[in-house]
Every structure is written in structure tokens, then in C-alpha cells.
């Protein structure tokens, strides 16, 4: 099977990727995916906060992720933006009982305080990313700066493990998944396209077990490790098929990976 796909022509591969994109990039994808959490809100500011927190805990079983992320929202009275901006110390303290795998209540409190710092200083999460991207034109530097600024407020060092470091060679899958949600725009109804000052061409693939496995099976990725170098390689390869929107094929690789269609 792998040899067959490696022998495909560019045009055949393009048609396959596009057919998979059509199969998975539609509203039926939403319910079982963490993106369903920001989709449960109508205001952009709530979607930004809900999406960031849902993406933060997005590793492991998808159903458990979605359930835990919705539980996060209930802890915040289903008003994530208002909670981040206005919650008292006593209200923030109520987050202490939350836990999702290694993300605990203390981490949750630290993330709320860090998000308050970002929103207060830059107006919104999108305000941070858009303004910093316009300054440098490189999301790699933006992610590096964001991690520094996010952790600029007092916090327990334990919470740092939940925000990947691009400077240490991490794939930053959850951050790039969040960026896909916020930046990508099409007529499919899945991604939000809220941050229009960042071009879709600037995005990098959210590389995880599924996209890495399928990328290698299809001959799109050679590197064995799921690290930052693999992200750069896979994204560069996919730009040959859609230079303006390479991350559109996240749906193709992730969708077919979780469905195990080609096993």
C-alpha cells in the first residue's frame, strides 16, 4: 500500500488529497472534534478563549478531550472571555478542582491569569498574534515570543509544559491546530477565519500521530520523528499542492488517519 502511494504522480496525489479534504472538511467533522468547543459560542472573543483552552488539552482520546474542554467552560460559567477578564481571585480559585490528565487546576488558574495578561495588553489573543505577525512575517518567531509573554506573569513552572516550545524543537501541534482554527477561512463551516491579518499561507501543519503516520504512508514526509523539522518538511511538501493554503490538507491526513481508511 505505501509503495503504491509513493508511486503516485503529482496530479494523482493532488486529486487524492483534495478528495480526502472534501470528505472530512465539512460540518460533520465538528461534533467529535475539540473545535466543537469554540463552536458552541457565537462571540469571537469567547471563541478565541474557548478555542485556546480546548486546544491546550487536546492530546489523547478525542471524546475525553471534548468532554473535558466543555467541562472547562462550565467552570467558567460558559462565559470564557468574561471570566478571563473579570473573574475575582476567589472565582479563579474555584478552578483548583479541575483536572484533565496532567493539566490540573493550578495549571488552569495560571492559564487564566496568563490569558488575562495577553488580553489586557494586546486587546485579544488575536490582537497579539496579528500584530506580532505583521511585525515579523514569521509565525515561528511569533510562537517563540508568545510563549515568553504568556509566561511573563507569576505562575507555577508546572504549567509551562502545556505550552510547547518551538525554540526547543517541539512540533507545537496544539498551537498550530488553534492557529488553523483562527486563521483558515473557507466556506466549509469548520474553521473560523477570525484573524484575517495573518495569511493562510503562513500556517504550518499541526503534526500529530495521525498526520505523521499518514504523511509517511503517502510519501509526503520522510523524517521519522514527529518534531519541528518534520513539521517544516511536511508543510513544505503540501505547499506544492496548495501554496496559499497548505494546512487545508490537515483534514485529509488527520481524517484518514483516525478513520484508518487505508489500513
Description:
With 263 residues, this protein is mostly helical. 56% of the residues lie in helices and 2% in strands. The protein has 14 helices and two strands, in the order αααααααββααααααα. The protein has helices at 2-6, 10-24, 36-39, 44-56, 62-75, 80-86, 89-93, 105-122, 125-136, 139-150, 173-183, 209-217, 228-239, 250-259; strands at 99-100, 103-104. The chain has a two-stranded antiparallel sheet with strand order 1-2. α2 packs across α14, α4 crosses α6 and α4 packs antiparallel against α11 (173-183). The longest helix has 18 residues, at 105-122. The model has no long low-confidence stretch (mean pLDDT 94).
Radius of gyration: 18 Å
Strand content: under 5%
Poorly predicted regions: none
What strand order characterises the main sheet? 1-2
Key features?
about 260 residues; mainly alpha; two-stranded antiparallel sheet; 14 helices
Helices and strands in order:
Elements: H1 2-6, H2 10-24, H3 36-39, H4 44-56, H5 62-75, H6 80-86, H7 89-93, E1 99-100, E2 103-104, H8 105-122, H9 125-136, H10 139-150, H11 173-183, H12 209-217, H13 228-239, H14 250-259
Antiparallel strand pairs: 1-2
Helix pairs in contact: 2-14, 4-6, 4-11, 8-9, 9-10, 12-14
Amino acid at each position: 500500500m505505501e509503495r503504491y502511494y509513493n508511486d503516485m504522480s503529482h496530479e494523482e496525489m493532488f486529486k487524492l488529497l483534495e478528495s480526502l479534504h472534501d470528505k472530512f472538511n465539512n460540518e460533520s467533522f465538528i461534533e467529535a472534534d475539540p473545535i466543537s468547543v469554540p463552536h458552541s459560542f457565537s462571540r469571537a472573543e469567547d471563541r478565541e478563549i474557548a478555542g485556546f483552552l480546548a486546544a491546550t488539552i487536546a492530546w489523547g482520546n478525542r471524546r475525553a478531550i471534548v468532554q473535558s474542554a466543555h467541562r472547562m467552560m462550565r467552570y467558567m460559567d460558559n462565559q470564557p472571555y468574561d471570566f478571563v477578564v473579570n473573574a475575582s481571585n476567589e472565582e479563579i480559585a474555584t478552578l483548583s478542582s479541575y483536572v484533565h490528565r496532567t493539566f490540573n487546576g493550578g495549571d488552569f488558574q495560571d492559564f487564566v491569569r496568563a490569558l488575562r495578561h495577553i488580553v489586557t495588553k494586546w486587546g485579544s489573543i488575536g490582537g497579539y498574534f496579528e500584530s506580532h505577525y505583521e511585525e515579523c512575517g514569521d509565525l515561528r518567531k511569533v510562537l517563540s515570543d508568545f510563549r515568553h509573554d504568556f509566561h511573563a506573569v507569576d505562575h507555577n513552572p508546572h504549567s509551562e509544559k502545556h505550552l510547547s516550545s518551538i525554540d526547543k524543537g517541539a512540533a507545537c501541534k496544539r498551537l498550530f491546530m488553534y492557529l488553523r482554527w483562527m486563521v483558515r477561512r473557507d466556506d466549509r463551516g469548520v474553521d473560523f477565519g477570525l484573524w484575517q491579518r495573518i495569511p493562510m499561507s503562513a500556517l504550518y501543519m499541526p503534526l500529530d500521530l495521525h498526520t505523521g503516520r499518514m504523511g509517511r504512508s503517502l510519501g509526503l514526509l520522510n523524517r521519522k520523528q514527529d518534531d519541528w523539522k518534520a513539521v517544516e518538511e511536511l508543510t513544505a511538501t503540501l505547499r506544492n499542492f496548495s501554496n496559499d493554503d497548505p494546512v487545508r490538507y490537515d483534514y485529509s491526513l488527520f481524517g484518514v488517519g483516525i478513520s484508518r481508511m487505508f489500513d
